[in-house]
Structure prediction request, 262 residues.
Amino acid sequence: MGLKEQLREKIGIDRLYNSILEKIKKYGGKIRPAEDLIKDLLKKADYKGREVRDLKIYTCNDDILVLDNELPIYRHTSVEDIAMRKSPTLKEMLSLRNIKRILTDSDIVFKKGLDSLSYLYNKALSHLDLRGTPSDIKQIIEGGILAYRQDEPLQMWETVELIFEILTYKEVGAELRFSPYLIYGIPEPDNGKKRYRDLVIITPDYREIKLLKGSFLATEMDTISRVTQVALGKEKADIEGVNVFVYWGEQALNSPFCVDNL
Prediction:
């Protein structure tokens, strides 16, 4: 896959992971309601599944995962040992040698619950090669420019999502949102404060795009006021329209995503 396809795959994995977390939260922390979504994540992380006794077991290299409400990942053991511990027969339970192994898994457990999910998410991402040549970057930028000029808002937004991945844009926090406009920025460290660089304002129909250059503290009234005024068209942005893509192209060519910069 080229850079564009790799970025789309990453966006898909991000959405899948967030959907899993949202479903778990909706059901009070229970993992089982998100089982089908977790299966999709396991597939993307290259785990192979099989049923052993009444257990749904997935393996990848040294990892042995049991798809249940604890979502444990085990290491330094075998599928047979896990089956005995998690779903023992009566004969196995009567064995003194097995009792301790049945009662505790602390000697073999690697991760559980949300830690397992985070691990699977990162493992899925590790299969991607999120690097591209200057030609790959230029192709993405030119696609955005063409979509903007031809008034194809959905195609333009698809390109903007790719660029946001390259330049690490995130949707701003609640204090800086201004519905129905879409507002994004590049998060910057600031002792726990919400600060963003290069704020982008996009109309809900994806037909107008504006950019404010610089570093902005989300909670400052000057920042909130300027974002509001620019969104409403009462103040001019630093960069607008096609020129936003040109600016992004310059930034992207100097990013770690560009192989010439590695």
Q: What stands out?
A: The longest helix spans residues 3-26. The chain has a mean pLDDT of 94. The longest strand covers residues 209-217.
